[in-house]
Sequence to fold (438 residues):
Amino acid sequence: MGKGMGKGIIADAAVEKYFADLKASTSYILGLLVGQGEFVVHAAMTPLKEDNPDGLMNEDDKDYILDHAEHLNRMVPGGLSVMGMFVVSPSHQTKESHMKMRRTMAAVESRVSEDRLWGFSEEDTNDRVMLHICSNTNKVTCWIMNIKEPSKSSKSATWSYLQWMTAFWPVAVCPMDIDLMFPIKDKTRHGLMQAMKDGMMRWAKKTEASVCLLNNKHLPAKTDLNPPTKASLRNNSQRIKIQGQIFIPTAGGKLGERPSTASVQVCSCILRLKGSLGCRAYMNPARTTAKTTTMYIKRDIIRSVYNSAKNFFEHLINDENSAKAFMVSQPLAKRVFFLVPDTGISLCDYILSSETEAAVQERVREWAGFTIPDGQLHITQQLVQGRLEWHQDSEEGMDSTWVPVYKIQQRRKITMGVAVASGVSLVACLIYSLFLEE
Fold:
């Protein structure tokens, strides 16, 4: 299991209360940890299977555990991630159970990384937390696993709690508009999903390269947005709120260069996503530099747009009338935030126009492990519409409000460039052109 003391892991006191309730209600459970760096802000039990109410730690249940990780990963805003797992059992941890946790943690990381469209930076950590709690003795064992070097032994770490740890974590918000178009060649279900993800990955790279203003200023990377003051040291009761604005360039070139994004692609249709976003990111007091704040904002933008688009496709693909549904504009899922009990952190979910608030409450209860009181869902994001624009065999029936596509000798090629600039006080714009070539 490895020797030597690693870094200390600090959890919000609400997590301690959650574990106490779990130990009183069941004898053997597994779950996931959500947090940032060395801070754990939330713990969520993996729902028990109906045919296995006593636990989930066997190889046959791995897919079920990974489904929990995927759902919970959709619910975290910028700055937070699925950073570990925990087990509560009546027995002490053995070498065999520890190795099983390592394999499960590696599988969880692999699953959540499938929807991670951004590259890693030097600010990111490769450490993942594994926590074991013996319900009979209350003994807590914490280990750190390097996910980039899974063959190396885990390192032990201290585990402690801090009252109201997240109550005054700085929060960054960034309203913005989007108008995106992705060419789609393969109209099969797999092809649609893959084309959407490929287009999102290209857009995500542009978003990572975008310019971000914080409180209307372009700040040096090391600027501390939450510097300690005499007043804050005397009474730390004021949450810092940071306003972000994002400018997404049309090309990957340097600022000031004339963009050149023309490309030629044969495609069957175009996916268009258009609307507004309400993005949010949390930073612990040790990570409030302009660099990390900007990084967390951009990641939340990428994650929220991707999750909305993925939700859109999953809903239509599973719909018996999806072929007809694709032909018209569809409202995308609205992003809703809800406060984690006894903390200063909110998680999020995505609600379709056909769903009720009760459906979101049920998902949160199942995957995040707590109940949302009625009226506590806060809608801060709405992608106005999503649409697939099919190529037609003739010009008849074309909707003039959408991008026109014409037939040329059984083959169509589209040259397209897109520019998006956005922010709460910015004018969002879309620049595109279509050239038809034989």
User: Anything to note?
Assistant: Residues 182 and 271 are 5 Å apart (CA to CA).
